[in-house]
Amino acid sequence: MEQIIIDLMEKFGYLGVFLLIAVENIFPPIPSEVILTFGGFMTTYTSLNVVLVIVFATLGSVVGAIVLYYIGKILNKDRLIKIVNGKIGKVLRLKASDIEKADNWFDTKGQLTVFFCRFVPIVRSLISIPAGMSEMPMKKFLLYTTLGSAIWNTVLVVLGSIMGDNWDSIVSFMEEYSHIALILLVILFIVAVIYFYTKRMRKQVN
């Protein structure tokens, strides 16, 4: 996978950066760390420059995020409620009111997560789906997505250009960061699920 990414970037330059980052946003397992740090390294021995690599990477991030946003819009709240009202909802012990609460939370407090999640592997892409499902205003979505993506892209591209031939050491570091971030997310998810069910059980007892 890494070698394919490198070959595409060396062959297509800025266009390769744009397309790979757009695809990476839609298919999170593709490592943006490799694309961005190698893009930074390429600026040390080709005609590519750091600013334009960041610009094309950010454009790719935004395009990929918009695709997922509209996927979320298609899988809207009403469709989720219909699913929850069926057998799946019974198995998962979810109610239509739970979907309403989650949607209300995203509308009132969750929109900034679109910005902060841009710094978390995998989630940085997937956060666009709930944003679309809750019909987050497109202007806000684009603002938070562009800002978060630009910061993430800038850090990795600049590091790649500074490290030069040792750009892959940043990839190794980012892999460690990704593992830690994902473990923390899993723990937070488990805690949230426990809290959710404990709260529900208390209500049923009372």
In total, the number of strands is 0
State the share of residues found in helices, binned by percent: over 70%
Which spans have pLDDT < 50 for at least 5 consecutive residues?
Answer: none
The proportion of residues in beta strands is under 5%
Task: Please state the structural category.
Answer: mainly alpha
Order of helices and strands: HHHHHHHHHHH
The overall pLDDT average reads 79
- Termini distance? 55 Å
What is the count of helical runs?
A: 11
Shape: elongated
Gyration radius from CA atoms, angstroms: 20 Å
Question: Which keywords apply here?
Answer:
206 residues; mainly alpha
Structure description:
The protein is mainly α. It has one domain (2-168). Helix 4 packs antiparallel against helix 6 (96-110). The radius of gyration is 20 Å and the shape is elongated. It is built from eleven helices and no strands.
List the helices and strands and how they pair.
Layout: H1 2-26, H2 32-42, H3 50-74, H4 77-84, H5 87-92, H6 96-110, H7 113-116, H8 123-126, H9 128-133, H10 138-163, H11 167-205
Helix pairs in contact: 1-2, 1-3, 2-10, 2-11, 3-10, 4-6, 10-11
Put the structure in a nutshell.
This protein has 206 residues and is mostly helical. It contains 11 helices and no strands.
